[in-house]
Design brief:
heterodimer, A: Alpha-Beta Plaits, 3-stranded mixed β-sheet, two-stranded antiparallel sheet, 6 helices, about 25% strand, B: about 325 residues, mainly alpha, Formate dehydrogenase/DMSO reductase fold, about 65% helix
């Protein structure tokens, strides 16, 4: 069984926001809402400045608080690791939004249901990569199957120093970050 | 110095994306108050003589059970207002998720309303039973009155559950440092009992009855002040996100309303306590009603403040820095 996830090589990100645009276009994300974002952190005093560019999205956590806090079972985790929302079961209670440490969810104003990154599961079905990955011109986003030890993402995870965001939340995310020097 | 810019959406970058609004705070306030009515009403019932015969039973013995389901239904109406897919509400009752506080709440409140309605019917004194329109309902009320004590015990237990649940609903979120405290359910239970006692002071008719609930409120306000201080102390001595989480309470400017909330609680609750103590001690002619209003307003203010500020708190370094 595959276990989909992503590795993000922050040293390659140039902050062009093409991933944000591609995601909005591919998934018909409502106005003023985003499934993915790029955080720009600048530290220091001019001219001594350091910058971190950090693409963020749903972390498709193994221990997903949005799933275990959902009272109706609308938020669920597929066997391949992708966290999804069943709109038919969603009551719009927003418990999942409050529960997500990554602020990766929002209410779709058109439907009232919780909305989030699906890793473009409709594209995965067709053998394609998520739109944000395909469009990333610096190849900072690397998508793959962590269940396959021979996949690029598994090899990176095995060979390199990687980190996850907000590890202390105990969510066991499956979006890993390659960054030798994150801003503290 | 660190500058952060985010292309993306969350409550911080776009305040209109706040998760929950005042309707949730009102629901938590009414839920807590109902918990107080259920617990204190049951205690009042066991302290009083049976309801048979002349109408000598204290008002709290029948007004608590009658008000509990009404106020809880109003509270549920407010949480219903917050749902963005209201027609799907039936899914709450087609699923039970033991890890979800909201699932426990949906099922719990679903059990509390019928049990409290039965208690209300059982508690209606004979001389008021004719207000029930239908004769069959009057008969049912009469038959239920035999089970009044058992229903009071059930309501006592469910009242404790309800009071704790209103806090667990928020404290179960690891993502929100302000809420993620084991003291929050205790604070909400304590606050709920305190507001319940305040309401009973307002609706009780007999001065002795008022005095009993005033004394109860002295104990409850005292413990509430202690729990509030411990709650803030716990946040202050925890990790950086927890310390940042309470900052809006002690900052003016953009967070001025939350500072006002702390100020209101800081003045209102001790003042209510002093007024209660003066009343019990027989000083002056200060009406306990003033103290009860302070407690009720304080109970609403603390829930509004916690609901709004909790949503601003985060483990993410975008917020905490």
């Amino acid at each position: 069984m595959p276990r989909y996830g992503m590795v993000i090589d922050q040293s390659r990100c140039i902050g062009c926001m093409a991933c944000v645009v591609a995601c909005k276009k591919e998934n018909d994300v409502p106005d003023e809402h985003y499934r993915t974002r790029v955080v720009e952190l600048v530290e220091g005093t001019f001219p001594k400045l350091r910058m971190e560019l950090r693409p963020e999205l749903c972390n498709h956590c193994s221990n997903a608080p949005c799933v275990y806090n959902c009272p109706t079972g609308a938020s669920y985790k597929r066997e391949d690791g992708i966290v999804m929302v069943n709109k038919k079961k969603c009551v719009g209670c927003k418990a999942c939004i409050a529960a997500c440490p990554y602020d990766a969810r929002f209410v779709d104003p058109r439907t009232g249901a919780a909305h989030k990154c699906t890793l473009c599961e409709h594209r995965i079905k067709e053998g394609k990569e998520p739109a944000c990955v395909t469009t990333c011109l610096s190849k900072a986003r690397i998508f793959g199957d962590f269940g396959d030890p021979q996949s690029t993402v598994s090899k990176i995870k095995a060979d390199k120093h990687i980190r996850v965001l907000i590890a202390e939340a105990g969510t066991k995310p499956f979006v890993f970050y390659l960054n030798p020097e994150p801003l503290a | 110095m660190k500058e952060i810019s985010v292309i993306g959406a969350n409550a911080i970058t776009y305040p209109h994306l706040d998760i929950w609004n005042w309707t949730i705070a009102v629901y938590l306030f009414l839920g807590g108050m109902v918990a107080g009515l259920m617990v204190l009403g049951a205690i009042s019932q066991f302290r009083s003589k049976p309801l048979t015969g002349e109408g000598v039973s204290p008002a709290s013995c029948y007004l608590s059970p009658v008000l509990a389901p009404i106020l809880l239904s109003i509270g549920m109406f407010f949480i219903f207002l917050d749902l963005t897919r209201k027609l799907n509400s039936f899914w709450f009752y087609l699923n039970f998720n033991p890890m979800s506080p909201m699932s426990w709440g949906a099922w719990g409140v679903g059990a509390i309303i019928p049990v409290s309605v039965l208690w209300a019917l059982a508690s209606i004194p004979e001389q008021y039973r004719h207000y029930l329109k239908w004769p069959k309902l009057q008969d049912f009320s009469f038959k239920l009155s035999a089970y009044r004590n058992k229903l009071a015990v059930a309501n006592f237990a469910l009242g404790i559950f309800l009071g704790i649940y209103t806090g667990v609903l928020l404290s179960g979120f690891v993502a929100r440092p302000l809420w993620n405290s084991a003291l929050l359910p205790i604070l909400f239970l304590n606050g709920g009992l305190s507001t319940g006692a305040a309401l009973l002071v307002l609706i009780a008719r007999d001065p002795k009855e008022k005095l009993f609930f005033t004394k109860a409120d002295i104990a409850l306000i005292t413990s509430e002040i202690v729990v509030i201080i411990l709650f803030f102390y716990g946040q202050l001595t925890s990790t950086a996100p927890h310390v940042d989480a309470i900052a809006p309470f002690f900052t003016t400017g953009y967070y001025f309303p939350f500072w006002i909330a702390v100020f209101t609680l800081g003045i209102g609750l001790p003042l209510a306590l002093v007024l209660d103590v003066m009343e019990v001690a027989g000083f002056a002619k200060i009406r306990v009603h003033l103290s009860a209003w302070f407690v009720l307003i304080g109970g609403l203010v603390i829930r509004l403040a916690l609901v709004y500020v909790g949503q601003l708190s985060s483990l993410s370094d975008i917020v905490h820095r």
